[in-house]
């Protein structure tokens, strides 16, 4: 069974494979350790855009954190203290995200044939833990302390808080809009809706900046509301409650980011349109009759590792079959998002992957499940 549909799936970026030059066949193993030209170019372009987004967020957070700290010291506001802790935590996290962006784009080598893409999720995981440990914990603790202290009474000028929060909203909003622009651009390229793409894609730095800046804007509104209620009623508890709510908001965001990065670090087979797209790419090749097994795994931001078994047409000698498989692997690795492809020849007794009796993803050639 051969399909003529080879367009990229809706949730994967870049242009269709038909518009890309295919790599020439090679038997040199060193050649296959280097990314294809299109992958290398696309990676640098995407990385530079992500780095601009993170740097803008870092600058905004440092300026905002300094202003909030000064305001918290002068006014004694619990909500402003929570916001200062929030912004300092975010600023530290942006440094982790810069490490993530740089680490993930290192070229693969002999010891790391699948590249260093998972480093992006590891550093992003550290950043998410920082949000929880520094931002959420400190904000909730300080809010509860203020709430339980009947003598706690901010003595500063409320106007200072409002001015600082207003400036912070503008700076955080600028960073947030940059993450939205980048996310919308990538979502258009992949044919996905904006929000599902940002929250569910493998681009951990974009997701982190978007989530943290969004939480920062909500936190500013909570702080302003708590300070305003304190000013209007004279009840300091509103200020403390705002601090606690800001901390809980940060905890929710941190847990979400931790879970997303954990899922990508653990890895797992990818199905749906992504898997169908790879099958279509393989079965559109004139030398392939059908695919009997396919495993697709995300090994980095927009980077795939593909393992498959194919039934080749004809009855060529072993060395010719090896050259055919290598040529197919090289052609697929010319796709921007495909990092590494490993193919093997299927047994003539194995059914097509479209057959209901086809092997499950975990029952590939040579697997314990298949041989048992």
Q: Notable features of this structure?
A:
372 residues; Alpha-lytic protease prodomain-like; 10 helices; elongated; Cation_efflux_TM; membrane
Brief summary:
The protein is 62% helix and 8% strand. By secondary structure, it is mostly helical.
Describe it for me?
The protein is mainly alpha-helical and 372 residues long. The chain has 2 domains: 37-266, Alpha-lytic protease prodomain-like (Up-down Bundle); 270-371, Cation efflux protein, cytoplasmic domain (Alpha-Beta Plaits, 2-Layer Sandwich), CATH 3.30.70. Helices cover 62% and strands 8% of the residues. The chain is built from 10 helices and 3 strands, in the order ααααααααββαβα. Strands 1-2-3 form a 3-stranded mixed beta sheet. The radius of gyration is 26 Å and the shape is elongated. The two termini are 28 Å apart.
* Count of alpha and pi helical runs: 10
Q: In the CATH scheme, what's the topology name of the largest domain?
A: Alpha-lytic protease prodomain-like
Q: Tell me the CATH superfamily of the largest domain.
A: Cation efflux protein transmembrane domain
Encode the helix/strand succession as letters: HHHHHHHHEEHEH
Structural class: mainly alpha
Task: Give me the count of strands.
Answer: 3
- Domain module tally: 2
Q: What is the subunit arrangement here?
A: single chain
Shape: elongated
Largest β sheet strand count, sense and barrel closure: 3 strands, mixed
Alpha carbon gyration radius: 26 Å
Strand arrangement in the largest pleated sheet = 1-2-3
CATH class identity of the largest domain: Mainly Alpha
Mean pLDDT over the full residue set = 77
Strand percentage: 5-15%
Q: Could you give the distance between the termini?
A: 28 Å
Helix content: 55-70%
Q: What is the name of the CATH architecture of the largest domain?
A: Up-down Bundle
Low-confidence parts: 1-46, 362-372
Main location: membrane
Membrane topology: Multi-pass membrane protein
Keywords: Membrane, Transmembrane, Transmembrane helix, Transport
GO molecular function: monoatomic cation transmembrane transporter activity
